[in-house]
Amino acid sequence: MNAYDLCAIPAAMFPDSECLVAGELRLSYGELDAWTAAIARRLERLAPGRVAVCDVNSAGLVALALAGWRSGRAVVPLNVRARGDELEFLVEASEPAAVFAGLRYLESVRAAAAATGAVVEAVPLSPDALAAPGEQTPADLDEAAVALGLFTSGSTARPKLVELSHGNLFAHVTSTTELPADGPVGAVVVAAPLFHIAAFGSICTGLFGGRRLVLLDEFDPDAWMSAVEREQATHAFLVPTMLRRLIDSPVFAPQRLTTLQTVAYGAAPMPGQLLERVLEAFPATTGFANAFGQTETTSTVTLLSPDDHRIEGSAEEVERKRVRLRSVGRAIEGVEVAVLDENGVPCPTGTVGEVAVRGPRVMLGYAGAASSGDAGDDGWLRTRDLGYLDDDGYLFLVGRANDLIIRAGENVAPAEVEAVLASHPGVADVSVAGVADEDLGERIGAVLVARPGVTLEPSEIVAFARTRLAAFKKPEIIAVIDEIPRSPLGKVRRPLVREILERDGVAVSPSGAIAAQ
C-alpha cells in the first residue's frame, strides 16, 4: 500500500486530463506523475528520514509530498508563519533527511535546520526544474507506515507532531470519494494552507476524485472569487473567518459563484448569525456542508450535509433543521462517534461529555510518544471536545475541555456565551475566556469586534446578555478590539484572548455599570 496510489490510479486512467493549476502552471495527471518520479529518484539518494516542506500552497509542495510517498518517506508540511525558535523546534521535531523551502523562507529554514544535518533545498517551481526523466517504482509499504506528519496548533503548549499512516489516508479518501467512472470532472479551489489536515485532505480527495486542483497561495476574497469564476470551480473549503471576509468584502458578487456545487466549512466554530448571512448571500444552488474532525482523526468524522442546510418543509421540520444548524452533523461512513463520561461510559442523549472517535481513521499517535495520545485501550480517541448527541445522532459541540470556565464552582462553556453574544446585531466576531479571580476562581471575559460603523458599549453588551443567559454565564469583563487573535485556520488563540482581557478589559458590574477591575 502506498498513498501515492491516490494519484497514480487516476494518472493511469486519464493521464492527459488536467489535475493541477497553480498560478500560470497547469499540469496533467501524466505530467504530475512524471514530475513526482523525478523528485522521488533524488529523494532515494538521501539519508533515512522524513521530508519536511515549508512553503505556501504551491505545485512544488504537492509534488514533493507525492514524491515523498513514492520514495517511501513520510512528509511533514511546516507552518510558514513559524519563526526563530518556533521554526527550529518544528524542523528538529520533524527529524528530516531534507527540508525544502519556498524562496521567501529559504534563509530562515537554513538557519533553523543548521543543527540537524538535513539537506536544505528550494522547493522546485515547475517540472522544468528537474531533468533526468526515467522510471521510478513507488515503494510498497505497510498500511501502518507513516505517510504524513502534521503539527497541532500548539495554542496552549508546544505543537505535537501527529503521525498519520498510509492506511489512515486511504480510509479517509475512499470513504468519502469515488473514482470518476467517466473521467475527471469539476474543480476544487484550495485556499487553506497545506500544513492543515483539511487542506491536505482536499488535495488527496481532489486527485482521487478527478477534480482539478486550483491552488491559491493565500486567501483573498477577490482572488478566490476570480479563481472560482475562471476555473468554473465546483467545490471549495473555507473556514468561517474566510467566509466572513468574503461576504463582507466590497467586491463580493454571488453571480461570480454560480458554478459552485458544494462549499465545505470547518476547522473552527461557525457562529449561527454568520451562517445565516452566508446562506442568504451565496447562490441558492450552492450546497453547504459543515465538516468536523481533527488532525488526529485524518480530517472529517461528522458532516452536516447540504440537505441539512436547506431550511424547508413543514413548520416542525423547519424548526428541527434550524436547531440542527448549530450541530456538526452525524458520523460519516466508517467512523464511530460517541460522547463518553469521565469513566468512558456513553452518555445519555442530550448529556454533555467528551467526544470520542474510533475507526481506521484514528492516527498512529504523536511522534515520540509511547502511546497513541488520547486513545485508550478501548480504541476510542478522546478528542478533548465537549458535546452531546441528539436522538438522531447529530453531534452538538459546546467547547473544548481545556477551555471550560469554572466560575464559583459552576461550569461555563465559552461556546454557549459566544453564540449569544454573536447574535447581537452589532457584533462581527467574539471570543470568550476565563479571567483569573481570587474570589470566584474565574470570571467570564469577552473580546468583541464591532460590525463596520457600529460602536459597542460594554454595558450594552452585558444588558443584552442578561436577558439571554443565566446570571453566572453573562460576561463580566469586556474588551472591544479590531481583530480576534486566531490561527491561520481561524481557531481562536485563547491564551492571547486572556492576555487582552487582563490588559485591556473593562469590568462591568451586574447592574451594567463600569466597575473597577
Topology:
Blueprint: H1 5-13, E1 18-22, E2 25-28, H2 29-43, E3 50-54, H3 59-70, E4 75-77, H4 84-94, E5 96-101, H5 106-112, E6 119-122, E7 146-151, E8 161-165, H6 166-176, E9 187-190, H7 197-208, E10 212-215, H8 221-231, E11 235-238, H9 240-248, E12 262-266, H10 272-281, E13 287-294, E14 299-304, H11 315-324, E15 330-331, E16 336-340, E17 353-358, E18 365-366, E19 381-389, E20 395-400, E21 405-407, E22 410-412, H12 414-422, E23 427-437, E24 441-450, H13 458-466, E25 477-480, H14 494-504, E26 506-508, E27 514-515
Parallel strand pairs: 1-10, 3-4, 3-5, 5-6, 9-10, 9-11, 11-12, 12-13, 24-25
Antiparallel strand pairs: 1-2, 7-8, 8-18, 13-14, 14-15, 16-17, 17-19, 19-20, 21-22, 23-24, 25-26, 26-27
Low-pLDDT windows of residues:
none
Strand order of the biggest β-sheet = 2-1-10-9-11-12-13-14-15
Name the average pLDDT.
90
Note the main sheet: 9 strands, mixed
Helical percentage: 25-40%
Ends: how far apart?
Answer: 60 Å
Number of helices: 14
Write a structural description.
The chain has 14 helices and 27 strands. Strand 26 and strand 27 form a beta hairpin. The termini are far apart. A 9-stranded mixed beta sheet has the order 2-1-10-9-11-12-13-14-15, sandwiched between helices. Strands 23-24-25-26-27 form a 5-stranded mixed beta sheet, with helices on both faces. Strands 4-3-5-6 form a 4-stranded parallel beta sheet, with helices on both faces.
